[in-house]
Structures are given as C-alpha cells and as structure tokens.
From TrEMBL, chain A:
<keyword id="KW-0472">Membrane</keyword>
<feature type="transmembrane region" description="Helical">
    <location>
        <begin position="285"/>
        <end position="307"/>
    </location>
</feature>
<feature type="transmembrane region" description="Helical">
    <location>
        <begin position="35"/>
        <end position="62"/>
    </location>
</feature>
<comment type="similarity">
    <text>Belongs to the binding-protein-dependent transport system permease family.</text>
</comment>
<protein>
    <submittedName>
        <fullName>Multiple sugar transport system permease protein</fullName>
    </submittedName>
</protein>
<feature type="transmembrane region" description="Helical">
    <location>
        <begin position="178"/>
        <end position="202"/>
    </location>
</feature>
<dbReference type="GO" id="GO:0055085">
    <property type="term" value="P:transmembrane transport"/>
</dbReference>
<dbReference type="InterPro" id="IPR051393">
    <property type="entry name" value="ABC_transporter_permease"/>
</dbReference>
<keyword id="KW-1133">Transmembrane helix</keyword>
TrEMBL record, chain B:
<keyword id="KW-0812">Transmembrane</keyword>
<dbReference type="GO" id="GO:0005886">
    <property type="term" value="C:plasma membrane"/>
</dbReference>
<feature type="transmembrane region" description="Helical">
    <location>
        <begin position="241"/>
        <end position="263"/>
    </location>
</feature>
<dbReference type="Pfam" id="PF00528">
    <property type="entry name" value="BPD_transp_1"/>
</dbReference>
<keyword id="KW-0472">Membrane</keyword>
<keyword id="KW-0813">Transport</keyword>
<protein>
    <submittedName>
        <fullName>Multiple sugar transport system permease protein</fullName>
    </submittedName>
</protein>
<keyword id="KW-1133">Transmembrane helix</keyword>
<feature type="transmembrane region" description="Helical">
    <location>
        <begin position="108"/>
        <end position="130"/>
    </location>
</feature>
C-alpha cells in the first residue's frame, strides 16, 4: 500500500521474472525500442522542461539576473543575503512553517474523523462522501479565495459571528497575526480529498479483525488504537507527505487574500508569494531561483525525515509487519 | 446512549458538518444576487431583493473582453491540457507499467521524484525558454508541457492502473502476433479508460482553477482567462461592485460544479485509488 515507494512498476514477483534470464533478456531487447518510442514525449519533457531547467535555475541562483541583461555571477551572494540580511525572507519562512504546522495536522485529523464517521453511516455514505469532497475541487479557485477574503474581512460573517458570541476578533484579513489563519481554514475546508483516501483505506481493513477483538472484549478506543491506527498508517503517511509538500507551495489563496502583496504587514507573505514578488515583480530572477532551490532542499529534507520516522510508526501488513 | 440516539448521532453530525462546509458556497451564490447595499449590512443569506443585473454586469466582462470570450479562452487551455495529459501520460505509463527496457528503474525513480519537485524550481528557466521562443502571452507555455508528460502525478496514476491489468493480456496478444504498439492501442488503452477519464477530469479542473501559471504567461486582456479576469475585476472595483464580482465568480466555477455532478464517481474513485494501490 505504499504509494510513494519506488518499487519496480512491472512487479518483481510477476511470473515473467521466474523464467530463465535468457528469455527475460530477449524480452528486454525486443521491447527496448518500442519502450523508448512510448517514452519519447516524457523523456523530452523530463530533459527540456525538468532536468535542464533545474540545472539552469541552480546556475541562476548564483547570479544577478533580471531577464534582460545577461546573468552576472555573484557566487553565494543571493544565499547569504537571503539568510543573513533579509528579514522579509525569514518572515516568509516563518509564515509558511506556521501554516504547514497548523494546517496539515488539522486537515488530516478532520479528514480521518470524517472518514470514520462516514464509514459507520448506514445510509447516505456516498452522498456525504461526494458532498464533503466538493470543496477540494473548488478550494483552489480564485472565486473561493475571494469568498474567503469577504467572509474573513471586517464586517464579514466570521468576525460578526465571533463578535456575537463574545470573541471580538475584528476582520482577520486586515490583521497581520490572523490573516494566515484565514488561509489555514481555507485549506482545512478542503479536507475531503484526504478523507476520500482515508475512507478507502478504512474499507480495506478486514472486518474480522474488529470482530475478533470485540470478542476479546476490546472497547471502541482500544480497537481504534490497536487495529485502525496501524492498519491505516500507510495511508496516513501517504496523506501526510502529500499534504505537507502541497502546503509548502500554497499560492492562490495567499495572493487573493492579501491582494497580491502578502499584506497586511507581510502577514500572508508565504514563501511562494515572496518568491514571485522577488522574481517577477522586482525582477530579481537569480534571487528567486536561489529561493526555489532552498525550497526544494527544505521539502527534500522534510520528506526524508518523514520517511525516516515512518519506519517506527507505519505498519505494512503485506511485509508481515515491520 | 439509547439505540435510537446511537443511530441518529452520526447522521446529525454529518448533516451539521455539511451545513458548515457548504456555507461559503451558499454565501457565494446569495451574494451574487444581492444589491450593493445589502452585501455588507445584512447577514441574511436570502437576498431581500434579487439583483439579477449583477449577472448582466458580469457578462459584460473585463476591459472590453466579454465573459464568453474569457470562458472560451479558459476552455481552450483546459481542453488542450486534457488532450495533452491523456495522450502523453498514457504513452509513458504504458512503457513504465508493461514493457521491459534498460534504465527502467532509474527513469521510474526519477519520475516519482518529480512528484515532489516544487514547480518553482523549474519556473524561471521555463519562462526564459518560452520567452526566447516568443511564446509568452500565447497559450503554448500552458498547453505544450502537458504533451510532454510533465505532470508526474498522472503518469503515476495511470501506471498504477495499468499495473493492475492481467499479464495474460499481453501473452495472448503476443501469440496472436500483436507487437507493443497494437497491444497498447487495441488492448491496454481501452481497458485503461477509467484511469484516463480520471486524468482528464482532474486535468480539466486543475487547469481551469490554475492562476499562477496563467498570471505569469498571459498579459493581453483578450488572451485572459476567466480566472485572470476575475482577479483584475477585483482590482478595478470597490466593495460596491461586490454583487457583479461574485456573479462572475459563480460563472467561473460553474464548469467545475457541472463536472463534479457529472463525474463525481470517477473523481472520488480516482482520488481513492491514487493513494491506495501499489
């Protein structure tokens, strides 16, 4: 169930591989050229639009480049400026980390809770599953970002309702400390996508596991801890990695809620927004490229950490446990 | 807890959750029909007076470009992206899932790795390339990459599906003298329809919603998409134009809502399998 594994896609355990190696080799030879023909578009894309640009952006990150004049080599200057002299950079790092750390667990917890709720629903499960999923399709749109801005603005529904129950927050959108939470809630609102994945995972847990433990006298909490959590852990892991990577790259809602400038007072200056501002508004393409590479590095490091920790809590039944 | 309560509690929680969840959408539709003075003052969802002229104002479009044109532009890009992704991802996926060739493991690992690659790392050089090719402010930068299978997510999705098809299909095809090309076209492709439909729907919706790439590459008002127009509409208008702005918002999400109602089975299943198989 590890969707992110890089296991051999044709399946090493397939009967084809149990044949004598000579035949396998012949098959490889026969299928070599057809395979490359099928892969041609992908290989061109991987080279021209992925690997090449990665190399170029790595190079540009060591230059001063404004798109019009030729790039000028400045060594590590972009990186040192970013890390030591640019408070706005650190502000954007802080905002993005705060966002990821708050939004991802909230969204996944809600998704898991909703999935367990729907699993126990006798009727209407398909209806609720679709209805809960709908925000995930609409949430990335400019329209919903604008709705969010209005709902969380001064005089919007959220401030009014909270004010009426004695929590005067004022408009979140205009408040540098609260604006980021409007974006958090917009992300959490889209919990339907991981919920659908959780629900499918829950439905794959063999019911006899629950029946056996019920016979042994295990209560609901015990069953959740000892059966649901370990059996679902690969799916939790998949969702965790996916949502974390996506959350680092959130852009449209931050852009719309701040009016495009990361305001108020850089309160919604997310990493990608600052990258866009440096690169495309201020024409510091080299600086933006350096930012992109540090983002890649950060995502890489966090993914590796997640994979490392996963060994201690992700349970793969098809590997006979750990 | 009584038996009745135990049965009704989950339904009550689900229904309450649904109300909260759908509130922003109801608010969007309601506001699009409200006259200017009601938008800020009234918390009531139901408009006191229906202001249908919001929609006529919205239909006029932005900067002299009509909404029909804007929707047409969005549609052109989205349909181009759909065709590109379905063709290129199914080709690559077939090779990864069903053929043996040298470097397969390395290439597949690279493809998986690009799943995690933030778009921003390749953004600037891609922009430079398209700029040099004179393609900025055309739809090529938005559509061409899809024909080159750059969206690893969909390659992966289709690979996962094709891996599940029985191996015997190719064995018997080979006995009948079918090479890889005919096997792909006549056997694997038709059987992969569910995965290809999922790819098509997600590509459509994501491209339709896309804002970042469109903002970077498109400038001329007549090239604008509905998303970009919505954005400039906000810049041009004050809160008094809330009604027309949200009328335009409703128009811009309509295709997605329509897609959702028609294809929800594929959407939900596609999402579920992406995280489970393998």
């Amino acid at each position: 169930m590890s969707a992110l594994s890089t296991k051999d896609p044709a399946g090493a355990a397939r009967p084809a591989d149990r044949r004598p190696p000579a035949r396998a080799r012949r098959r490889t030879r026969e299928q070599q050229w057809p395979a490359y023909v099928f892969l041609t578009p992908w290989m061109i894309g991987a080279g021209v639009l992925t690997l090449g640009p990665m190399a170029v952006s790595l190079y540009l990150s060591f230059t001063d480049y404004n798109l019009f004049d030729p790039p000028r080599w400045i060594g590590l200057r972009n990186y040192t400026e970013m890390l030591t002299e640019d408070p706005r950079y650190w502000r954007s790092v802080g905002t993005t980390l705060l966002f990821v750390v708050v939004a991802v667990p909230l969204k996944l917890a809600l998704a898991l809770g909703a999935a367990m709720l729907l699993k126990n629903l006798s009727r209407g499960r398909a209806f609720y599953r679709s209805a809960f999923y709908a925000p995930s399709l609409l949430g990335a749109s400019m329209s919903i970002a604008l709705v969010w801005k209005a709902l969380f603005n001064d005089g919007g529904t959220v401030a009014d309702v909270l004010g009426a129950v004695g929590i005067p927050t004022g408009g979140w959108v205009g408040n540098p400390d609260l604006a980021v939470y409007a974006v958090v809630l917009l992300t959490v609102w889209q919990f339907g996508a991981p919920m659908v994945i959780f629900l499918a995972g829950l439905q794959q847990i063999p019911p006899d596991l629950y029946e056996a433990s019920a016979l042994d006298g295990a209560g609901p909490w015990r069953r959740f801890r000892s059966i649901t959590v370990p059996m679902l852990s690969p799916v939790v892991f998949f969702n965790l990695v996916l949502e974390t990577i996506q959350s680092f790259q959130v852009f449209t809602p931050a852009f719309a809620i701040s009016g495009g400038d990361g305001g108020p007072a850089d309160g919604t200056m997310f990493y990608t927004l600052y990258l866009y501002e440096r690169g495309f508004t201020a024409s510091h393409m080299g600086y933006a490229a350096a930012m992109a590479w540090l983002l890649l590095l950060a995502i890489g490091v966090i993914t590796v950490i997640l994979f490392r920790t996963s060994r201690s809590w992700v349970f793969y039944a098809d590997e006979g446990g750990r | 807890m009584t038996i009745a309560a135990k049965r009704w509690l989950p339904h009550t929680v689900a229904a309450a959750g649904l109300l909260v969840l759908l509130y922003p959408l109801a608010w969007l539709v309601a506001t699009s029909l409200k006259p200017a003075d009601e938008v800020v003052t009234s918390l009531d969802l139901w408009p006191g007076r229906f202001e249908w002229s919001n929609y006529t104002t919205a239909l006029e479009g932005v900067s002299g470009v009509s909404v029909t044109r804007l929707l047409g532009n969005s549609m052109l890009i989205a349909v181009g992206a759909v065709i590109g992704n379905v063709v290129s991802c199914s080709l690559a996926a077939y090779a990864f899932a069903r053929l043996r060739f040298r470097m397969r493991k390395a290439m597949f690992a690279f493809m998986i790795a690009t799943l995690m690659l933030p778009h921003h790392v390749v953004l600037i050089p891609q922009y430079i390339v398209f700029n040099q090719l004179g393609m900025v402010d055309t739809y090529w930068p938005l559509v061409l990459p899809k024909f080159l299978a750059t969206e690893a997510f969909f390659v992966f999705l289709v690979v996962q599906f094709m891996r599940g098809l029985p191996r015997e299909l190719e064995e018997s095809a080979r006995i009948d003298g079918c090479g890889p090309f005919r096997t792909y076209w006549e056997i694997i492709l038709p059987l992969s329809r569910p995965a290809l439909i999922t790819t098509a729907i997600f590509t459509f919706i994501w491209t339709w919603n896309d804002f970042f790439t469109q903002m970077i590459y498109l400038f001329a008002p007549e090239n604008a998409t509905i998303t970009l127009a919505l954005r400039s509409f906000v810049d041009q208008s004050s809160t008094s134009a809330f009604g027309p702005m949200f009328a335009m918002s409703v128009i811009s999400v309509l295709p997605i809502v329509l897609f959702f109602f028609v294809f929800q089975r594929y959407l939900v299943q596609g999402m579920a399998t992406s995280g489970l198989k393998g």
